[in-house]
Amino acid sequence: MRLAGRVAWVTGSAQGLGEAIAKRLAAEGCRGLTLSDIQPEKLERVAQGIQQAYPECKVLPLFCDVRSEAQVAETVQRTVETFGRLDILVANAGVIHAAELTEMTLEQWQWQIDVNLTGYFLCAREAAKVMKTQGSGVIIQINSKSGLKGSYKNGAYAASKFGGIGLTQSIAMDLAPYGIRVNAICPGNLFESPMWQESLFEQYARKWGIPQEAVQRYYEAQVPLGRGCTYEDVCNLLVFLASDEASYITGEAYRVAGGQL
Ligand SMILES: NC(=O)c1ccc[n+]([C@@H]2O[C@H](COP(=O)([O-])OP(=O)(O)OC[C@H]3O[C@@H](n4cnc5c(N)ncnc54)[C@H](O)[C@@H]3O)[C@@H](O)[C@H]2O)c1
Asked: Which residue's C-alpha comes closest to atom 43 of ligand 1?
């Protein structure tokens, strides 16, 4: 219960890592949880599940496309109307489309920049307006190891995530005088995620010219600790960064990638 009484907002929380983060925030004692996504039915199911498992944590599921300035502003407004404040933003919503440079369309490029970078900017900006008036708050971006090192046939995703690190470092300085901390978490490969299960195994088999069933072993072989990243690995760091134990930490980007550089 390291986040007892806090109010948090997790974007892209209808599935995958965002769903796991939402559950963990409830388990750590948050009293209010805004969950947002563009998949309303899945989001509703996740919200109901958390509400049942953690009756003391009030869950507010909202449709919000992080690319929409109006929807992001409304999500923050509804959060404050419902819970009276906002302590923690987890900017988790993200998309990926792997492609070699000359095969990447402007549309694919723009989609990844819009969701992964502009979406983070909009959510951080609107959350920070509330946090500034409170004189406290924590913003955590779910970035990627591809935000710290170039990624083969994955330029748009890497560019969008590198941009997120620049934004994190910069707004950490803007917001420090107001008691708001901003950090990024850069996970390794989350093989259990729908992102891998529904799309990346297939995309990466094509990219490397190997069979789909060989992809996981290929990626694990690049990790000194010899396994993929789990939701729990990410949540453990996230809870620490969101808590007062991390009160002297801002503007950082931490890999959770088993030693993979
Ligand atoms: N899966 C991995 O291996 C991995 C590794 C490193 C970093 N990450 C990052 O973790 C985060 C979560 O990824 P995941 O694996 O859970 O992916 P996922 O595809 O399972 O979940 C992403 C969620 O974001 C939502 N989303 C997509 N576009 C949106 C938009 N415009 N507005 C609001 N929500 C939107 C989706 O509906 C989905 O629920 C992403 O930022 C991703 O880049 C993932």
From this structure: 94
Q: Ligand 1, closest atom to CA 16?
A: 16
Pocket test for ligand 1, best of 9, 15, 17 (most atoms within 8 A of CB): 17
Q: In a 3-state reduction of DSSP, which class is residue 88?
A: strand
Q: Three-class SS string for 114-135?
A: HHHHHHHHHHHHHHHHHHHHHC
pLDDT digits (tens, 9 = 90+) for 3-61: 999 999 999 999 999 999 999 999 999 999 999 999 999 999 999 999 999 999 999 99
Structural domain spans, the chain: 7-191+228-256
Number of H helices, E strands in the chain: 10, 7
- CATH architecture for segment(s) 7-191+228-256: 3-Layer(aba) Sandwich (3.40)
| pTM (2 d.p.) | 0.98
**Going by C-beta distance under 8 Å and a sequence separation of 6 or more, which residues neighbour residue 43?**
13, 14, 35, 36, 37, 61, 63
